[in-house]
Design a protein that fits this description.
Blueprint (H helix, E strand, L loop, with lengths): L18 H7 L4 E7 L4 H6 L5 H10 L8 H14 L2 H18 L5 E2 L7 E3 L2 E3 L5 E2 L5 E2 L5 E5 L2 E4 L2 H25 L4 E5 L2 E7 L3 H11 L15 E5 L6
Antiparallel strand pairs: 1-10, 1-11, 2-3, 3-4, 4-5, 6-7, 7-8, 9-10
Helix pairs in contact: 3-4, 5-6
Amino acid sequence: MFPQSNQVGNVGRHGQVDAATQNRVLRNTYWMLAATMVPTVLGAWLGTGMGAKKLQHTLKTQPPGVDLPEEECKRIVNLYRQENNKIPGLWQECDHALNTMMNGVKLSFSLGFGEALSITADGVKLPNNLYIRYPNLHLNADSKMVYDSRRGSVKIWGGAMVENVVQALARIIVGEQMLKIRERYRPILTVHDAAVMVVPEDQVEEAVDFVTKIMSTPPDWCPSLPVACEAKWGHSYGAC
């Protein structure tokens, strides 16, 4: 969160503040609050079923770039799957759901823990009553499951479906949080799972507490979900 200072911007030759600076100084007594829920990047990769070779390639090509032997990548993948054995179980459950959707869903059923997700004839029903759809789900010539999209044929498997569901649920959670935050402060920017607000200077601490509480509260449709956030403030978004 940050104070928008009148020292920011350009001043003309005769001490006159230019228009761009004036626009920024209009928020002189306001602060920016940025709150975010940050996932572990490695866990996000491995959680979608990434294997050792792909992990090796990803670590090497993504900044800062780490070149690990394939055997070490296998050890990391196996350790992750052993320590988080319920995740591979969810991949298998999603594989079963995809096969059921491909063959035609006769009776809707829940996916995963609780009843937040349902597998229906129309697709994966989400808690906000929207759907993840896989049009024309079928096996291609290589016996790989694919569906039609605007980009053409797209491969889908249990791990990829888990990623789709996680991203959809995360967006629903953040969207619901934004609506609650908006009751007191107007969000001016969202970046992935981060929310940015401009608030009066004398409400900084109150805003931090309010937004942190909102973004650390699990949704009604999954009260046991561990949700947490970090809140920072500064003079600019970069300072947060």
